Amino acid sequence: MRFDVLTLFPRLFDAFLVESLIGKALARGIFEVRVRDIRDFATDRHRTVDDRPFGGGPGMVMMPEPLGRAIDEVKASASAGVKPLTILLSPTGRRFDQETAVRYAGQEHVILVCGRYEGVDERVSRTRIDEELSLGDFVLSGGEIPAMAVIEAVTRLLPGVLGKEESAEEDTFTNGLLEYPHYTRPRVFEDLPVPEVLLSGDHEAIRAWRRRQSLVRTRERRPDLLHSAALSDEDREVLLAFEAEAWGLGGDEKDEADS
User: Fold this and answer.
1) What is the pLDDT of residues 205-250, one digit of tens each?
2) Does residue 154 share a domain with residue 88?
3) How many domains does the chain have?
4) Cα dihedral sign for 150, 153, 157, 163?
5) Domain range holding 195?
6) 48 and 160 together in one domain
7) Is the domain of 247 the same as that of 209?
8) Residue 177 resides in a domain
9) In a domain, 90, yes or no
């Protein structure tokens, strides 16, 4: 898999691409990242890439010519028969999620365009961008951090990037729920012990405990995810029991409330 990143600040990626799992995976050739400076595609001696917006208003807008040339050159360098997916990182884009990361992991070549200033000239978006993507409902100074987030989220799904392939399968959002809590040594930390079930060696009990924790954590923190999660009858019983506990209902009161 190949990523091309188009940015006005290529040095922001220096540490990101050599540290941790990303650096190790790149060294092993599992995927490839090429970072290009959009200013290299400007034609004037000042390497100008932005200008004032037509119609007035604050800030500057990324000009279409340098960015258009940058995208065109990267697309022309793609392997034969490969059509790169071109993504603009922008606060006006669709929100990035795990499902999108999985879809991108199936691509051979992804171009990540890092927006800056007030945004990118709309004519570039119309003619060269396949998708616009946002990390969430907040504004950053540019698309560099979102681009790093996309690369990390996508590449951890590629075979060989993680130490254990099942790690990605159990990640938060992979099954539509938040992940269960984790514990390690020591068994007691500041008078807080590890839950006994995790020390029991009973794999089925551990599985059930983790599933319940995942369901309850999702209900408490991200209840919106439950609407689209694949829930079993057992899961629904867990959630009903949690709701009953939250309302302080016993068995009889719960049955009455359900009716």
Assistant:
1) 999 999 999 999 999 999 999 999 999 999 999 999 999 988 876 6
2) yes
3) 2
4) positive
5) 188-258
6) yes
7) yes
8) no
9) yes
Find the catalytic residue in 40, 65, 73, 118: 118
Q: Which of 171, 179, 235, 243 is catalytic?
A: 171
Which of 39, 47, 156, 222 is catalytic? The answer is: 156
Look at strands 192-193 and 188-189 and give their pairing. Answer: antiparallel
Return the closest-CA partner of residue 32 out of 85, 129, 111, 145. Answer: 111
Active site residue 171: yes
Could you confirm whether 186 is annotated as catalytic? Answer: no
- Clarify whether residues 24 and 130 are in a common domain: yes
* Residue 47 covered by a domain: yes
Q: Which residue in the list 73, 91, 152, 217 is annotated as catalytic?
A: 91
Looking at the fold, whether 101 and 204 belong to one and the same domain comes out as: no
Phi and psi at residue 142, in whole multiples of 5°? -165, 180
Q: Domain holding 206: CATH number?
A: 1.10.1270.20
- Widest CA span in the chain: 80
Task: Render pLDDT for 2-51 as a digit per residue (tens, 0 to 9).
Answer: 999 999 999 999 999 999 999 999 999 999 999 999 999 999 999 999 99
Concerning whether 118 is annotated as a catalytic residue, the answer is: yes
| Residue 49 CB coordination number (10 Å) | 23
